[in-house]
Amino acid sequence: MSEIANRQRKIAFYDAKSYDHQFFDPVAEKLEIGIDYHNFRLAEANAASAEGADAVCVFVNDKVDEPCLKALAGFGIKLVALRCAGFNNVDIEAAKELGIVVVRVPAYSPYSVAEHTLALLLTLNRKTHRAYNRVRELNFSLGGLVGFDLHGKTVGILGTGKIGKITAQIFRGFGCNVVAHDLYPDEAWAMREKVSYQDISQILPQCDILSLHMPLTKESFHLLDDETIASMKPGAYLINTSRGKLVDSAAIIRALKSGHLGGVALDVYEEEEGVFFEDHSATALQDDVLSRLLTFPNVLVTSHQAFLTVEALSAIAETTLDSIDRDIKGGTAVEERVVG
Fold it and tell me: Whole-angstrom Cα distance, residue 126 to residue 118?
């Protein structure tokens, strides 16, 4: 600590975007932390770029596996700070064995993701994106733009953490009947908000809209596959703003082709690494599954932008840098630690 105290603390920051500079720089200046921004993603091959730093700051698509962590440990890195809630891209057991502390942002602005969930659904259902393009071409016809009222529809919420709860409450505000599933149900909240907890097998056949808000685990991987999608109500809409690998994308395509799914809105995709957050407009998209999804008129995809609000980005910057600051001083909050 004395060595660090005698110089400016420094972090190596990976997969940096313009908005990261905007929100992290003011907080870093206040805490007297220097940031070396790198536009590339962290992996074993470029781990040497962290040499001389006190910590590394990574995002959802950085590959912090065992080889990468061993390389980081070799350069004296003792702290990995995720500027997100999920940590499935970090080998937690390897970090523990190497004595590397892993911290995350357990909550930033759950409203940002919940509100984007509704934005996706409303856009897809009421064909707002298609109407916008038509009107710009002076086409004011209404053919093909018919949607449905949300009021009175049954909505299934899988996962009632902070985001799932807020999403459920927004749907209740639209007059929807909300049913939910969670491994750890909050019955007091459900009673207060008039939400009914049920098994997934009960939820899927009755829902007009299914919204995913679950963490990715071995048990939840491809939770929605051919079998479970087949059990969904014909014509149902599926919204995923949680984790891409909760859904088998090929199964979605089959259900869309058969007409079993009425619409799909995704802010996450199971193979989004190397695609989302980047501009591919001048090249051919190499992912054939994603390319096929984008051809359906009843599919809407955004590139993992649900978190992208002023409030969320401010909270992410403050929590991430505060965790780094306190950990170096020996006091990171328990709820922010994944390992350590």
Answer: 12
**133-173 pLDDT per residue, tens:** 999 999 999 999 999 999 999 999 999 999 999 999 999 99
Question: How far is the C-alpha of 149 from the C-alpha of 68, rounded, in Å?
Answer: 49
Compute CA distances 209 → 117, 226, 255, 340, whole Å.
11, 17, 15, 40
Count of domains forming the chain: 2
Amino acid at site 303: S
Catalytic residue among 41, 181, 304, 318: 304
- Structural domain of residue 290, as residue ranges? 110-301
Catalytic site includes residue 272: yes
Give catalytic status of residue 7 as yes or no: no
Note whether 33 and 318 are within 8 A (CB).
no
| 243 in active site | yes
Same domain, 226 and 280: yes
243, 270, 318, 336: the catalytic one is 243
The tens digit of pLDDT for each residue in 90-110 reads 999 999 999 999 999 987 889
Place of tokens 């009107």: 135
User: Are residues 334 and 290 both part of a single domain?
Assistant: no
pTM to 2 decimal places: 0.88
Given the residues 270, 272, 318, 336, select the one marked as catalytic: 272
Radius of gyration of the chain (CA): 22
| CA–CA distance, 259 with 255 (Å, rounded to integer) | 6
Task: Specify the CATH number for the domain of residue 138.
Answer: 3.40.50.720
Amino acid letter, residue 259: G
Using a 10 angstrom Cβ sphere, with 0-12 exposed, 13-18 middle and 19 or more buried, the burial of residue 211 is buried
